[in-house]
Design goal:
Oligomer: heterodimer
Largest interface: A-B, 80 and 65 residues
Strand content of chain B: 15-25%
GO molecular function (chain B): clathrin adaptor activity
CATH class of the largest domain in chain B: Alpha Beta
Distance between the termini of chain A: 82 Å
Number of helices of chain B: 8
GO cellular component, one term (chain B): clathrin-coated pit
Mean pLDDT of chain A: 72
Order of helices and strands of chain B: HHHEEHEEEHHHEEH
Organism (chain B): Acanthochromis polyacanthus
CATH architecture of the largest domain in chain B: 2-Layer Sandwich
Main location (chain B): membrane
Helix content of chain B: 55-70%
InterPro entries (chain B): AP1_sigma, AP_complex_ssu, AP_mu_sigma_su, Clathrin_sm-chain_CS, Longin-like_dom_sf
Number of domains of chain B: 2
Low-confidence stretches of chain B: 1-10, 33-62
Number of strands of chain B: 7
CATH topology of the largest domain in chain B: Beta-Lactamase
Chain lengths: 1160, 218
């Protein structure tokens, strides 16, 4: 032993510590990667050792390597090991937590293992242990951790040491984000912390401010408290937060703004720039939210602008922020900013590009008719000076933006064209296109400017070689497009020949194709104008020369690679010109006709011109053609074509049904095969379990989750009626924060009593019931739950996809649809839980506080009340709406479920739920059915129950009981107890006696909730009854009484049957003769046959295959008895021939079936 | 470049889609990706950007998103993330940001807008301290936080230099953790932070000492 220790310490001596590693990396600059890979190998060796200190050293090194960008996720488990070394030394634990906080993220699965360790560390007597755990937790808290540790952290908020309190308070925010349910119970304590001395107080302020910024309306009632803090606190950090909070609150409560202005303007005179900046920002926000046109606020704006000026004149960073804030003021109060034009123009000279850009942004809003040209000229100077193309391009676009804003509102003369022309001189700008479109726009809009513009464009065309120096690379040649077009279209040229010559230069052929096309087209236009002017002259040679020029130059374009240039423009125009030349040679006057080619002038279009165009009478919803015909008519078509096949189609409807049935059977068979095939990869791993008779996955009863606590599931699938993004963590925190009811406390994740009973149905959330193995260890259970959830999500997604593809399949498994349900239900419960009236008191408090504010006039005081009431009403009505929508949704689900293949029990209300097992094709809607029957009832409570067999365990049945509160009081401490018989026993958690009751894991309200209890039974051939008692406490506002309700649980034989599909061996089974037969006749049954079948299926857990007026039904008991029925109908008589390997069971089942029909 | 930009968006969207665990968001992303495909480059520039900004909103939880320390050579010296991101995304952000910040001239101001965040950075000797905050947050107070942290390091190490942080990077983390928690300043008094660190160190030494005493006889 001693030797081993010595050996261990010698080993340690040779280990590299972090310093060695860092040094090593620095010494291996050339082959760093190789060196590190050897280091990682060493680390792997070290991690294999038993010595925790060696491990910690290795983990420490890994943390460093992680920072360098190496993947260390493989060592996650070792990190957990080191984390849990607190019993050895604080140092190692500290390293472990550091490594975890650096390397872990939400998807690291080993986080699951840390829960208990963290809990232990949190409750450590040493404050630094706790501190380390809290710090670490803040980095890697997951929803699971948040849920499991919320209570512990909440306790720490009242720790004796402020050191822990402040950390706990801050970390609560992370917990809220991950586990929004904790917000409501934790909030009162958080509020208390606002009264604490400094570090804790500022932490609480931080958290509440962050919460309030996301959902300000819930925190409006805290305004007076924060107002007091704002006026009393001297801590700038706290003040900044509070001011920010008010910035978020004022848009909701305009009266608050008025009250705030004064203290805020007082605070502005601080020397701390950060506080000043925050104040200015908030004042701006407040003033924007206040209705504009309040004269007395111009003073505040003026003050803000002055303070901002100080900022701008200050150091660089403050300059940037000052400009940023200035631009906010500019939006609402441009006048007050405009007076500081000088300062902002100065900023254009700043060395920092970001500051110049900010200043540019500001200038945009500051121009007026008077100063536009001044500003633009100044900007043009900067364009010349500017270094770096990005900034220059930015300048260019800003100039154009400034000039063209609101339809050239501020442009008064022609200078804009010159500016544009000047801008084309910029080398390497990307905005040639923008300039070109501006040129075209201005020239087309303003007639008066055209002559000037054409002259400018002609020069531009003449100097095209200047622009096109490296033209393919830059976009500036785009301006030639505009220039050529303007010259051609508005050819008021002094020297048109020169321009024409310029347009037909050989160099033009190197321009991009679309520009060449415009060149050629406009050369033709220009040619036409020239002809016209020349034909007036006596000398016809000039005109002929012009034609000759065209004919000489155009072939160049005919060879162009661009089709548009080659085909449409050049060759066409070339031929045209040749023809004109011919005519000219014959001395025919052609100018008029040539000009007619390009006749017509472009006029600017008024912005409202579109309105003058009448709207065509078009019904977009109506079919343009006949809608596509339905399948039936398609069936008829081949009938007409293939007359011989007519017999086959004589009953098209029937065959269709049969085909569907066949398809279903085939699918069933396939599923069975898949389930049996070990190599087939299934969506859910647990479905690999092959049961004796391999029932299809679909046929396992699906149960609904019962929520022990009214909660809003944070990661629940989105419900349709919520148009907000449900994944926004802050939306989930939108929780009513009224004072808590005393029944409310932080939901703790403990094992529910019913769960302890190993209820197979406990995990109702998982739709896939094959995963219902009994769970033993809590940690395992949690992990599994998560897995299942994931899997489930995946599955439901798959199903959704499938739905899209196989839309025509009616018997679609509607898992996707069901997945919404937990969300809906939880929504309801949380709504119920929130006492709706308690807000009013606080609201009126706030009103009082606000009305004390020095308000300038009374009318304004009463006015804002209305929107508030309206808002409240709105929230109320939205609640109603929600409920309504929910109802609708439920109905929808009901519809879906009708097509559903297996049992689905929805714990809703008192059992008016319609759930059906309808393998039958629907012909008529079925009446609603429910398996829930009354257990007991008194004036306080009503219990309905349903019994289901447990597939996995032949000796278990699950009793689902829905408790419904019938009175106004709270029902709590409900205890469910049953007097066991020899045959049937209630399963109780380990350690409790045979006569102990089970605590129902919830309280009422919510109005109703469901609990599940597991019973073990030995013999199932006989029905039996168990006596039981429910005890509970009825709590009123003033009193609480102990109440008791007796009941009798009736275990029918049916409840031992489990819906199992008729499988292939069905016929063989019947033939084999192992089964005992029995039969029963039902007289006077006047319901449709399919209703009857559906009833049997539903109430007695059978599956069915129907052939006309005859149906074979099958079911299996939890202990493997086969029950086969042959149901025939003729008129009002229904005969059931039944076979089973257990005659007593069969007899009882038949009796029960008989009873079912005698009842209706 | 103009047409590359949407492609970049597209790629990062794709990355996000692959990494995101949340099915709902993933679905949304996928449909967004699909939409992006359908639209022409010019048109989808804008919606995509807003989608990315939506993403950042989704990440954003507390004031500070992350803090990075890197040298003039672009070597990362310290990183603290207050938002859950995948390693890949972290690396990408780090790389981009280090480049952007290093490219800035010394006289430029300490703030820049980057993606949907505001970056506040300051250079102390050879080290850049760089924080990312949200749109509504106060740049100046963030600068103050950086400065505080540097002061704390300075007090703790005694005129701190880059090597101190390299070789004692865990200490640098411990100090940061005592000062900021979850991206929020938890302690505004320098004295208290240092006191906490010293006591924790003392505790560590004490236990080390005890361990050694205890281990000696065996």
């Amino acid at each position: 032993m001693a030797l081993k220790i010595v050996k261990g310490s010698i080993d340690r001596m040779f280990d590299k510590n972090l310093q060695d590693l860092v040094r090593g990396i620095r010494n291996h600059k050339e082959d760093e990667a190789k060196y590190i890979s050897t280091c990682i190998d060493e680390i792997k060796q070290e991690l294999k050792q038993d010595n925790i200190a060696v491990k910690a050293n290795a983990v420490c090194k890994l943390t460093y390597l992680q920072m360098l960008g190496y993947d260390v996720s493989w060592a996650a488990f070792n990190i957990v090991e080191v984390m849990s070394s607190s019993k050895f030394t604080y140092k190692l634990q500290r390293i472990g937590y550091l490594a975890a906080s650096q390397c872990f993220h939400e998807s690291t699965d080993v986080i699951m293992l840390t829960t208990n360790q963290i809990r232990k560390d949190l409750s450590s007597p040493n404050q630094y242990d706790t501190g380390v755990a809290l710090t670490g937790l803040s980095c890697f808290v997951t929803p699971d951790l948040a849920r499991d540790l919320a209570n512990d952290i909440m306790t720490l908020m009242s720790h004796t040491k402020p050191y822990i309190r402040k950390k706990a308070v801050l970390i609560m925010y992370k917990v809220f984000l991950k586990y929004p349910e904790s917000l409501r119970p934790a909030f009162p304590r958080l509020k208390e912390k606002l009264e604490d001395p400094d570090p804790v107080q500022s932490a609480a302020v931080n958290v509440i401010c962050e919460l309030a910024r996301r959902n300000p309306k819930n925190y409006l009632s805290l305004a007076p408290l924060f107002f007091k803090l704002m006026t009393s606190s001297t801590n700038n950090w706290v003040l900044i937060k509070i001011i920010k909070l008010f910035g978020a609150l004022t848009p909701l409560e305009p009266r608050l703004g008025k009250k705030l202005i004064e203290p805020l303007t007082n605070l502005i005179h601080t020397s701390a720039m950060s506080l000043l900046y925050e104040c200015v920002n908030t004042v701006i926000a407040v003033l924007i939210s206040l209705s504009s046109g309040m004269p007395n606020h111009s003073a505040s704006i003026q003050l803000c602008v002055q303070k901002l000026r100080i900022l701008i004149e200050d150091s660089d960073q403050n300059k940037y922020l000052g400009l940023l804030a200035m631009s906010k003021i500019l939006k609402t109060h441009p006048k007050s900013v405009q007076s500081h034009k000088d300062l902002i123009l100065q900023c254009l000279d700043d060395k920092d590009e970001s500051i110049r850009l900010r200043a540019l942004d500001l200038l945009y809003g500051m121009v007026s008719k008077k100063n536009l040209m001044e500003i633009v000229k100044k900007l043009m100077l900067h364009v010349d000076k500017a270094e770096g193309t990005t900034y220059r391009d930015e300048l260019l676009t800003k100039i154009i933006d400034i000039c063209s804003q609101s339809n050239y509102q501020y442009i008064t003369n022609f200078e804009y064209i010159s500016i544009l022309v000047e801008l084309t001189r910029l080398e390497g700008t990307r905005h040639g296109h923008l300039i070109a479109s501006q040129m075209l726009d201005v020239a087309i809009r303003v007639k008066a400017i055209r002559v000037f513009a054409v002259a400018q464009m002609a020069t531009l065309l003449d100097n095209a070689h200047l622009l096109t120096g490296n033209m393919q690379r830059n976009g500036i040649c785009e301006v030639l497009y505009a220039a050529a077009w303007i010259c051609g279209e508005f050819s008021h040229l002094e020297n048109p020949m020169q321009t024409l010559e310029a347009m037909l230069r050989p160099k033009v052929a190197t321009l991009p194709g679309h520009i060449q096309a415009v060149y050629v087209q406009n050369a033709a236009k220009l040619f036409a104008t020239i002809l016209k002017s020349q034909e007036g002259n006596t000398d016809s040679t000039a005109a002929q020369d012009t034609s000759q020029l065209m004919i000489d130059r155009l072939p160049l374009f005919v060879q162009s690679a661009n089709l548009e240039v080659q085909e449409r423009q050049a060759s066409c125009i070339l031929q045209l010109v040749k023809y004109i030349q011919k005519l000219q040679q014959k001395d025919v006057e052609v100018a008029e006709e040539v000009n007619a080619l390009f006749a017509g002038e472009l006029n600017p279009v008024a912005p409202k011109a579109q309105k003058k165009v009448p709207v065509p009478e078009l019904d977009l919803d109506a079919w343009i053609n006949e809608p596509p015909s339905e399948s039936e008519s398609e069936d008829e078509q081949p009938k007409a074509i293939f007359a011989k096949e007519e017999p086959k189609h004589s009953r098209p409807r029937h065959t269709e049904v049969d085909e569907k049935e066949l398809a279903r059977q085939r699918r069933e068979a396939r599923k069975q095969e898949q389930a049996n095939n070990p190599f087939y990869i299934k969506a859910s791993p647990s479905s690999q379990k092959v049961y004796q008779d391999a029932p299809g996955v679909e046929h396992i009863p699906v149960v609904q989750i019962d929520l022990s606590v009214p909660l809003k599931v944070p990661n629940a699938l989105p419900s349709d009626d919520d148009d907000k993004d449900p994944n926004d963590p802050h939306k989930a925190l939108d929780i009513d924060l009224d004072p808590l009811a005393d029944s409310e406390k932080l939901p703790v994740r403990s094992h529910r009593a019913a769960e302890a009973a190993k209820s197979p149905a406990e995990d109702g959330e998982t739709e896939n019931a094959t995963s219902l193995e009994p769970k033993k260890k809590s940690s395992k259970e949690k992990r599994e739950k998560k897995k299942e959830k994931d899997r489930d999500r995946k599955k439901s997604k798959e199903e959704k996809k499938k739905k899209k593809h196989k839309h025509e399949e009616k018997e679609e498994d509607l898992l996707g649809g069901q997945a919404d349900e937990p969300a809906v239900q939880s929504e309801e419960t949380s709504e119920v839980a929130a006492p709706p009236t308690s807000t009013s008191a606080e609201v009126s408090d706030l009103d009082f506080w606000l009305s004390n504010a020095p308000v300038p006039s009374n009318t304004q005081d009463s006015e804002p009340d209305e929107p508030k009431d309206a808002e409240m009403e709105e929230t109320k009505s939205s609640k109603h709406k929600k409920k309504k929508q929910k109802k609708e949704k439920e109905e929808k689900e009901k519809k879906k479920k009708k097509k559903h293949h297996h049992h689905h029990h929805h714990s809703d209300g008192g059992g008016e739920e319609s759930v059906q097992n309808g393998t039958v094709e629907e012909e008529e809607p079925l009446p609603p059915m429910s398996n829930y029957c009354l257990l007991a009832e008194n004036s306080y409570i009503k219990m309905v129950y349903d019994i289901q067999g447990n597939l996995q365990d032949g000796s278990q049945v699950v009793v689902s009981v829905i408790f419904e509160n019938k009175c106004d009081s709270f029902l709590k401490s409900m205890e469910f107890n049953v007097l066991d018989s020899l045959n049937s026993k209630l399963q109780r958690p380990e350690g409790s006696g045979p006569h102990d009751g089970l605590t129902v894991p919830f309280q009422l309200p919510p109005v109703s909730n469901e609990a599940r209890f597991v019973f073990t039974v030995q013999s199932i051939v006989m029905p039996q009854k168990l006596k039981g008692t429910l005890t509970f406490i009825v709590k009123n506002e003033d009193s609480s009484t102990h109440e008791k309700l007796d009941f009798k649980l009736h275990f029918t034989c049916t409840s031992y049957l489990i819906t199992t599909p008729c499988y292939d061996a069905f016929a063989k089974l019947l033939e084999s003769g192992d089964l005992k037969g029995s039969s029963v006749r039902l007289e006077g049954v006047n319901m449709p046959f399919h209703h009857l079948l559906a009833r049997i299926c539903f109430h007695h857990h059978f599956s069915v295959e129907r052939i006309d007026s005859c149906a074979s039904m099958y079911s299996r008991s939890i202990q493997g008895h086969h029950v086969c029925l042959l149901v025939k109908t003729s008129g009002q008589t229904v005969s059931i021939d039944a076979k089973c390997d257990e005659p007593t069971l069969l007899g009882n089942v038949l009796d029960e079936i008989k009873q079912t029909f005698s009842q209706c | 470049m103009h047409f590359l930009y949407p492609m970049c968006c597209f790629n990062s969207l794709l990355n996000l889609t692959c990494q995101n665990q949340n099915n709902y968001i993933q679905d949304h992303l996928k449909s967004a990706l699909f939409d992006a495909f359908c639209l022409t480059a010019d048109v989808f520039n804008r919606p995509l950007c807003s989608l990315i900004s939506l993403f950042f909103h989704f990440f954003s939880s507390f004031q500070m998103q992350f803090m990075l320390l890197f040298s003039r050579q672009g070597k990362l010296r310290l990183q603290k993330w207050y938002v859950p991101l995948s390693d890949k995304e972290k690396k990408k952000i780090t790389r981009e940001l280090v480049q952007t910040v290093l490219a800035r001239k010394p006289k430029m101001c300490s703030f820049l807008e980057w993606r949907d965040l505001k970056i506040v950075y300051k250079r102390y000797a050879s080290l850049y301290f760089c924080c990312a905050i949200e749109d509504q947050d106060n740049e100046l107070i963030t600068l103050e936080i950086i400065h505080r942290y540097v002061e704390l390091l300075d007090k703790y190490f005694g005129s701190v230099c880059e090597l101190d942080i390299i070789f004692n990077f865990e200490k640098a983390y411990f100090i940061l953790d005592e000062f900021l928690l979850g991206g929020e300043a938890q302690e505004t008094s320098k004295k208290n932070v240092l006191k906490a660190i010293e006591q924790a160190d003392l505790l560590q030494e004490n236990i080390d000492f005890q361990m050694r005493l205890f281990a000696a006889p065996s």
